[in-house]
Amino acid sequence: MNVPQFVRQNGAATLPEELVVRAWQNLSAIQAELVTEEGEPVSVVYPGRINEDEGPDLLDAVIATRRGLLIGAVEVHVRSSGWWTHHHQHDPRYNQVILHAVFWHDSGMTACLANGNHVPTLALHKYTLENVPLVGDNKERASACRITGASRETMTASLDAAGDERFINKARGFSEELARYDASQVLYTGIMGALGYSRNKIPFQELSRRLPLQTLEAAGGVDSPDSDYLLRVQALLLGTAGLLPSQRGAISRAGEDLWIDDLERAWAAFPPVETMSANDWHMFKVRPDNFPTRRIAAVSRLLRQYRKQGILAAGVNYVGETAPENPSRLERMFTVVADGYWADHYDFAWDSSCAGAMLIGRGRAADIVVNILLPFVYAWGNHVSQKGLAVKALELYRGYPRLESNTVEKHMSQKLGLSKPVNTARRQQGLLHIYQTGCLAGKCDECLLY
Fold first, then answer.
1. Under a CB-based contact definition with an 8 Å cutoff, are residues 58 and 51 in contact?
2. Between the CA of residue 242 and those of 18, 23, 109, 115, 233, what are the distances in Å?
3. Strand ranges in 305-369 using DSSP code E only, listed in sequence order
4. Of 126, 242, 280, 332, which is least packed with CB atoms within 10 Å of its CB?
5. Can you give the C-alpha Rg of the chain in angstroms?
């Protein structure tokens, strides 16, 4: 059933937003010129993927305008007045919106963003015709890729090639960093970014720049006991991040949270440094086990574990000693068991018996291996003329089992009509590469899957 039929049969008042989303996703099927309510011609290159989190309805959409290709989010409403009813004009999460897609433009106003910019409005009722179906009940099919009929052999070979291209691109980025910075610092910054996921990646990278690995290790003490080293490193990391209770307006429960008291004293003993703010970190809609406080606790334990040999030597040795038939062994380098204070705390003064047993579990460890360690070692091996090590890193990558799924992979699998999950990390990386370099760039005609 399409939107006009629904309106006639059920009435405009009952039109669900889900149908308007599907109408937007199918809009590329209409060959007529699209014009926004502000008089700007536009065309849909890629309608975007459904956002499963807070914020705009569709992410990573691509539209062609007189200003060129625009990439960003699309917010959908039945009526344009919904923008103001939902107070999006005050919500910074909507600053990424490039188009307001509505069925009826009842407000007569252009949507404004929290940053002061405005985005055009497209009234879909002008273009949603009888011959534009809503594709049954499968809302993901509405954004299906036009690649159809490719054999499984062709598809897997293309995904392997795309996965290799993504790997080489990552390694190239590390090579550029290695030409400018100490190798241990480059690996440390990469690991820090990976621990932040998408929401806290940038803050973690910023923390690694403000607190270089060499400074951090020296502050821990060369000959200090492991317990003292852990306390100093964790205090310095949390303090520089601006996440200690004293920096967040919280009062430690003296006599109850002894670890907090120890951290605060250790932090106070360091010379003053320019710190980050708690507002730089994202906690909202972040799983408690992934809170930056727990991830920082994990980093301090990794540094304690490899304080003698160094994290660079540890990574290189792990890759060199891992058999190609057992690449998952590399995950051991990054798995960290929760102990002490963080065994039953998500954050300061937030104790819970449900806190995860791991500060870094196998899933996140595998992501670090595939996205950071292996491309880094490949780049480092070539940088120091250890070609055999570089070849080994690529071999381990190509044989690595599939990682945990993410929303982009699920979206791409549905777009491509893949009936079974992609079965290797290399092919998962290929899907991500095609999405980022093809779909988001509007380069359907240059797609690696053709």
1. yes
2. 41, 45, 41, 26, 14
3. 336-337, 345-347, 350-351, 358-360
4. 332
5. 25
Reported as type and span, the H/E element at residue 184 is: helix 183-195
Written as six digits, the tokens of 139 are 């809302």
Residue listed under structure tokens 């334990």: 301
Q: Which two tokens stand for residue 444?
A: 């359907």
- Find out whether 145 and 420 touch, Cβ atoms under 8 Å: no
d(CA 241, CA 219): 16
Tokens of 375: 């491309």
Residue 196 has pLDDT above 70, yes or no: yes
Do 133 and 2 contact (CB within 8 A), yes or no? yes
| Residue 130 φ then ψ, to 5° | -60, -30
The rounded distance, in Å, linking the Cα atoms of 214 and 194 is: 20
Q: Is the Cα torsion angle 356, 213, 211, 204 positive or negative in sign?
A: negative
Q: Is the pLDDT of residue 10 over 80?
A: no
Distance CA 273, CA 280 (A): 16
The Cβ of residue 251 has, within 10 Å, a number of other Cβ atoms equal to 9
Give the pair of three-digit tokens for residue 105: 């433009």
CA dihedral 180, 184, 186, 189 (to 10 degrees): -140
Would you report the helix, strand and coil content of the chain in percent, each value rounded to 5?
A: 55, 15, 35
Cα angle: 243, vertex 286, 264; to 5 degrees: 15
E-strand ranges in 405-446 read none
User: From CA 23, how far away is CA 339, in angstroms rounded?
Assistant: 51
The pairing of beta strand 41-46 with beta strand 34-35: antiparallel
Positive or negative, the Cα torsion across 227, 231, 234, 240?
A: negative
For residue 26, what pLDDT is reported? Answer: 81
Q: What does residue 282 show for φ and ψ, rounded to 5 degrees?
A: -100, 125
pTM score, whole prediction: 0.80
C-alpha to C-alpha distance for 354 and 289, rounded to whole angstroms: 10
Residue 146, pLDDT > 60, answer no
Strand pairing of 97-104 and 121-123? parallel
Cβ–Cβ under 8 Å, residues 317 and 189: no
Give 381-430 pLDDT, tens digit per residue. 999 999 999 999 999 999 999 999 888 888 888 778 777 778 999 999 99
In this prediction, residue 132 has a pLDDT band, given cuts at 50, 70 and 90, of: very low
